[in-house]
Design a protein that fits this description.
The complex is a heterotrimer, with 2 copies of chain A (205 residues) and 1 copy of chain B (265 residues). Chain A is built from 10 helices and 7 strands. Chain A has 205 residues and is an alpha+beta fold. Chain A folds into 2 domains: 71 residues, Orthogonal Bundle (Arc Repressor Mutant, subunit A), CATH 1.10.10; 112 residues, Arc Repressor Mutant, subunit A, CATH 1.10.10. The longest helix of chain A is centred in the N-terminal third of the chain and has 15 residues. Chain B has 265 residues and is mostly helical. Chain B has a 3-stranded antiparallel sheet with strand order 2-4-3, with helices on one face. In chain B, helix 2 packs across helix 3. Classes of the chains: A alpha+beta (205), B mainly alpha (265).
């Protein structure tokens, strides 16, 4: 590897530390009155050197600066995915919307018999499983909710008609008194139980 | 900090006001600082320093400052007094000396000067290093790294169906069926026992009050109700009860005088 | 010139973009769970590559960052970014904490022979160079101070072992308390030494 010249190193350090992109003239002046031509040469050498590195030296409107190599831009904004299981409360709300859609929040609450925190609906929206489906034309014009195609997708349903009916639920023992069903579900899915409180919507922070 | 340090503890040098003294002493942060500076003027390793010469220099310095009619800060005077004592002790014959010997005190002073000197030098070397923002620079405009947290929610169709079943089961209106069991109420037992007591004044066993052809279930209920009815009548003074011992037959008979009182008492 | 590897480029881009020095673990996590050993190798390759350039890759207290080469300081020194000039008291206190840490205020004062004004420690705390490091488990439970990673960073120290002259100072016993040094040099009965203390304290009064 050829050693970088003194001017090349100086330009490199100056641009690295600079708070704004610099013109060739500004660089020349900063480095104590170097000829702009020499600065231009140093910049060309530097740009060539950095071409294959993780950082590039680029010119934008006559001003030079370092920036992340375009193919590595994804490193600057990393998305960290966190998989979380839907809370019990959110699952119930989702089920009610799926069975009764379109349905307002007040209707969901009357079916569940408990209040539904706003966060629960937010979680379902964030998951992409429910959507606003307009307003019910009754006094107060409440917002109504319905499921999305993503809902069918995620849960492997061709259509909402695939959801088992009440009679099938009863036959499957799913309408058994809550205590029994609850215990059965505890055995079935232990981590569900942890989230079983009403505020279990578990808003992401 | 040991007690020994106490005489060397002085308030950090304050900013000079108009006081002429500080024109002279401003350069030093307290007597130990001045002593260290004087020691350095001996131009030898602090370990080789002559404490006696140092004491003389300090006292001369303070004297001269006094001669210039400067008001001397108390801490410099305290140090001067202590050093004067140290000097006189060092000049005394050895056998007249008490513990601690002046040599020990001098050694402690020397050790302290060495330590202060070492730290002063270390501080200077530290400050002379290439420092960020002065000699070396970090990137002027870092793009910054951002981590966006995204929650991916997970569930399955069985959980949804099961949840719906539970909501339905939890909120379904419930109808309670109460089985119609053969019982004798307290009221009817009271009526029966009262009526039968009216028939005779003799002792009767409580079993005799039970309906003769009742089912075993009704009999149990009738026994319990009749017993409570008997207690109630006894309480009202209309009947008396008698039993020979535990689990022996309970007997009952009407109290004669009770006729006057009536049932409604 | 050999081409940098993918991980080397990724580490390079990440450290260029980061607003603060990063540990190997933080780098490994940011790059999506790379083995720390591989990150370490990439850092070593990068550091070697940058050694002759105008920008250096350095480790400070276990955290890595790029900074301009020290030999270019004369070109880059800027008035507007002058680092805060510390008072002599503050520089001494900082040195005492760095060489003796963790250390209590009383111990600092016993070395300097003057009381430390509250402002002096505040200035060092505000600069981010010292921190509270708990309490000494002796009567009075005094607060003790230690330096921070930012301190190592600012003064260009890979670790406290790089403090100028610390080995020599330690070997010469100059980092030991006066009492220890005194006993060592007198080889004295400790009881008598204690008595000596008392007399010493009373004499000047």
């Amino acid at each position: 590897m050829s050693e970088p010249g003194t001017l090349e190193r100086a330009v490199e350090a100056t641009l690295f530390a600079s708070e704004a992109p610099m013109t060739i003239d500004a660089l020349a002046a900063h480095l104590g009155g170097i000829a702009p031509g020499e600065v231009r040469e140093a910049l060309a050498a530097l740009a060539a050197h950095y071409l294959q590195r993780g950082v590039h030296l680029v010119e934008r409107g006559g001003r030079w600066h370092f920036e992340t190599a375009p193919d590595l831009a994804h490193l600057l904004r990393r998305e960290k995915e966190q998989v979380r299981r839907l809370s019990r409360a959110a699952t119930e709300v989702l089920a009610i919307i799926a069975y009764h859609e379109p349905v307002s929040r007040a209707e969901i609450e009357s079916i569940r018999g408990v209040q539904t925190s706003a966060g629960t609906l937010d979680v379902l929206m964030e998951a992409g499983w429910i959507r606003l489906a307009g307003r019910r034309e009754v006094p107060g014009r409440p917002v109504i909710y319905a499921t999305t195609p993503e809902f069918l997708d995620h849960f492997g349903l061709a259509s909402r008609r695939d959801l088992p009916g009440i009679d099938e639920l009863r036959a499957a023992g799913l309408l058994d008194p809550v205590d029994d069903a609850f215990e059965a579900s505890m055995r079935f899915d232990p981590d569900e139980a942890e989230e079983a409180d009403e505020h279990g919507a578990n808003l992401p922070d | 900090m040991s007690d020994f340090d106490a005489p060397f503890m002085f308030p950090e040098a304050t900013k000079p006001d108009a006081g002429a003294l500080y024109l002279e002493l401003d350069g030093w942060e307290g007597p130990l600082d001045l002593l260290l500076d004087l020691a350095r003027r001996q131009k030898v390793d602090l370990r080789q320093i002559s404490i006696l010469a140092l004491v003389d220099q300090y006292l001369t310095y303070i004297e001269r400052a006094g001669a210039m009619r400067l008001e001397l800060a108390a801490d410099y005077l305290v140090m001067a007094a202590w050093l004067a004592y140290l000097k006189s002790a060092m000049l005394l014959p050895k056998d007249q000396q008490e513990d601690p010997s002046p040599e020990e005190l001098a050694l402690r002073l020397q050790l302290r000067l060495q330590r202060l000197g070492a730290m002063r030098e270390a501080a200077a070397r530290l400050m002379a290093r290439d420092r960020i923002g002065r000699d070396v620079f970090v990137r002027g405009t870092p793009e910054g790294l951002r981590t966006d947290r995204k929650t991916v929610w997970r569930s399955d169709i069985f959980s949804v169906i099961q949840a719906y079943g539970q909501v339905k089961a939890r909120t379904a209106p419930r109808i309670y069926h109460v089985a119609n069991r053969p019982v004798m109420t307290l009221d009817s037992a009271l009526e029966r026992v009262s009526a039968m007591l009216g028939v005779t004044l003799e002792w009767m066993e409580i079993r005799d009050f039970l309906p003769p052809h009742a089912s075993p279930e009704l009999k149990r209920s009738a026994l319990a109700s009749s017993f409570v009815a008997a207690l109630e009548l006894a309480k009202r003074g209309r009947a008396e009860l008698d039993q020979d011992g535990a689990f022996t037959p309970l007997r009952i008979r009407r109290l004669k005088e009770s006729v006057a009182h009536g049932l409604g008492a």
